[in-house]
Amino acid sequence: MSILANEKCTACRRDSPQVTEAEIQDLKRQVPDWTLVEREAIQRLERVFRLGNFVEALSFTNRVGALAEAEGHHPAILTEWDRVTVTLWTHKIRSLHRNDFVMSAKIDSLAPAPSQASGAFHPTILTQDELALRLLALRHFPCLNSVKTR
What we know:
The protein has a single domain, classed as 2-Layer Sandwich (Gyrase A, domain 2), CATH 3.30.1360.20. By secondary structure, the protein is α+β, with helices and mostly antiparallel strands. The protein is built from five helices and four strands.
């Protein structure tokens, strides 16, 4: 686990410092699977997580959401059938802050092992919330009944 994953996000204000280019290079080494992207003249961190199906993608999205709420630092999340794209930047300063790297490391710790995402079958022990989410998904999306979970 990354040293960053053990840190706590700090509250940001509009005058909070952006990370410097040197800091970005150093912090980026600790979260190598994340890509630096620029959109709307704002530098961001982004990663696509590959998952087995929509239910797994939605479960991962909810875990990221719970972490974001606990840390007080909220990413943009795009949930698709077999993948979740997470994008981080600090809205108040319209740039990257150390918090974005801390969150990326924490989100990495939530990601399934590569063998699980590749389609190999690994039995999963579900939490009560995950089980409720899957049952809700099956009730509202009957087409999922015919989808084989991996």
